[in-house]
Amino acid sequence: MKKIVLVTCDPHLEPALQRKLTGADNWKRTDIHVLNKVKASSILRSSPAILFVDMRLPNNEAWILLDALQKAWADSPLFPIFGLCPTQPHPPELIKALDLGAEDLIGQDTPAPLLLARMRSSLRKYDKSPQGETLTSRRGHIQICLDTHQVFVRAERNGSDHPLVPVPSLTPKEFGLLHLFLSRQEYVWTRENLLNILWESGSNSFPRTVDKHVEMLRRKLGPASAFVKTVPGVGYQFMEVNTR
After folding, report:
1. Which CA distances in Å does 87 have to 19, 101, 153, 210?
2. What is the pLDDT of residues 77-88, one digit of tens each?
3. Which among 118, 7, 129 is positioned nearest to 64, based on CA atoms?
4. How many CB atoms lie within 10 A of CB 185?
5. Which of 40, 53, 80, 239 could disulfide-pair with 103, CB 3.0 to 4.6 Å?
6. pLDDT tens for each residue of 113-127
């Protein structure tokens, strides 16, 4: 389900936005979540598909929020941002917003079909979902693409309402380890098993070699690293446990 987060202190703005979305593109009333606390950390945790920011927030809070989000995600934006203005924005405001990472500034009088078209266009640009044949963990916290070797994990370890986000590129050995773990989930892999499958015979590799690669894999998996369990004296096991 697509999720909209609206940052505003105006109780009339959410119904107005809702009217524009009603009956269009499968957006539903439950999709809009209103926040009145202007904190980048709160918005990032809410994991929206699209963020709308009321540009009339007091004390320049809208501009401060745009600047904070841009710094938080550096060169990899997670979702499109639209600023909402009472009327069509003036060029200096629009230029400033674009420079701070916003997709657009939208006047509240913008026709619904135009607003929806801009939203669809933005969602296509920000779609980071895996392409091609995939393998997914049982509870959906990790997904790998077998064609491109991309790996995606949930932004949070608990629950399934957080989006899948890409992790740093894995080395061939790291990807091979994760592929094996997901292929036989909850199976206990000995270090010798993993060496025999992923390392060439005669490569002078040792069990400690496996440990080093698993350590690097865990670092890249972020919150999902906890699912790669160490079985003392034996090896490793992928066990997806919901800790909620």
Report:
1. 17, 20, 40, 60
2. 666 888 888 888
3. 7
4. 15
5. 80
6. 888 888 888 877 776
